[in-house]
Amino acid sequence: MNKQPVKYLQTDPRWKKLPYRVKGETATIGGSGCGPTAAAMAIETLTGQTFTPVDACKWSVDHGYKALNAGTYYSYFVPQFRAFGIECRQMLGSSLHNKPDHSIHDRVKEYIRDGCWAVALMGPGTWTSGGHYVLVWDWNAKIRINDPASTKDKRLNGDPDTFRREVKQYWLIDARDYNKEDDFLSSYDKFKEYMERYRKELGSFPAPDWAVPHIGTCIKAGVLVNAGTEDNPKIDRPGDLITRQEAAVMASMILRAKKKFRHGGVYHVKRKSQTAAGAGENPPVPA
User: Is the pTM of this model over 0.70?
Assistant: First the structure.
């Protein structure tokens, strides 16, 4: 589990009424400073330097990232973090709002599980009626959030399905060094977690074209179990590694199939024609 960053609220009485504005507006940190506040929490935690929402909002205004009569430009986060030597990148240019099945959600989740954090721009719903930046610091059964404008549990421990529907953008923050676990047991547990994820990823890949006819042959011979249909035979986890016990089961099934063919008839296999040698097709060879 990742470590939680320091917590700041844009509505803190110490600065909520302070200006966060450009010429032509009267915006305050309390009303419009969610973006810099989310950044301040991450920056102060990762650098160990005091960096409050006041400091972040000043940096945003000084560098031209405060939007007139709105909040903070999307382009603020990457240079703000870069100013402190922290890697940050926007994950997608288009809006994710109401796209809970988009693949980017799972990618961000994996990055966070690896120790990163993410600034998330939320759309209308649980977190805001318009637009609101929050800092996501962990993603497991719940979305663990530092919300610059709330201490409500449903906004700090978000429902993953709701979050995926309502989020619009992600900015990934490299916090892996801060979140890394040094002790051997934690490292070993992390290795097992990675290995499980790696095997799951391998298993999700479809069988390549060159392997399909061989898989079909093994299914017909009873060596592999058909997880598809008779017209479209398939196997589970086609790209996954196999354990020694799985290999033993397969070897046993091969021997059983071989014995069956020997007692029940000849298993005919045709060799390719040896045209280069001028010979015709070879006769069937028994198994």
Answer: no
